[in-house]
Amino acid sequence: MDKPVDPAVTPLSPPVTPEERVVVARQLGRPPRALVGVAHRCPCGQPDVVETSPRLEDGTPFPTLYYLTCPRASAAASRLESGGRMKEWQAELATDPELAAAYRAAHESYLATRDDRGVLPTRTTAGGMPDRVKCLHALAGHALAAGPGVNPIGDRAVAGMGEWWAAGPCAQPSPEDPEDIR
Fold it and tell me: Among candidates 15, 19, 67, 79, which has minimal Cα distance to 46?
């Protein structure tokens, strides 16, 4: 009998291919850890968000389910952080009950998705959810992976990041890439 579908659970990302693993390693500048699949693709066609296992290869809990890998997207999220958006949106969470409720629902959706992949001994999710705004990279990664309307702060971050893909693919093949990066 099939497991019932939970509408709060984001579908499993397609399994990562060896070629995608190389692109992600090139983006990160190191081999990725606990990589499961590509959760979102940049409009340029390359991965920009990956899905990771709830546990690292050695069994250590790893609560960050979605990871923003594109260096241009990451830089755009960093610009928002340094421009004060986290503080601004954190203050808004304290005064806007609808935003706070939607952010808590994003947290619950994130937990439901992660627990679907493997239950961890923590209710910690990412980016400070459900009460804080502390990492726009994680929140944007969640918003891109889950789709618009799931994470209101992540959606704001993605909108504020602009067209990070406009210059074309960020991870061009290079003959200097080590063969063991996979």
Answer: 19
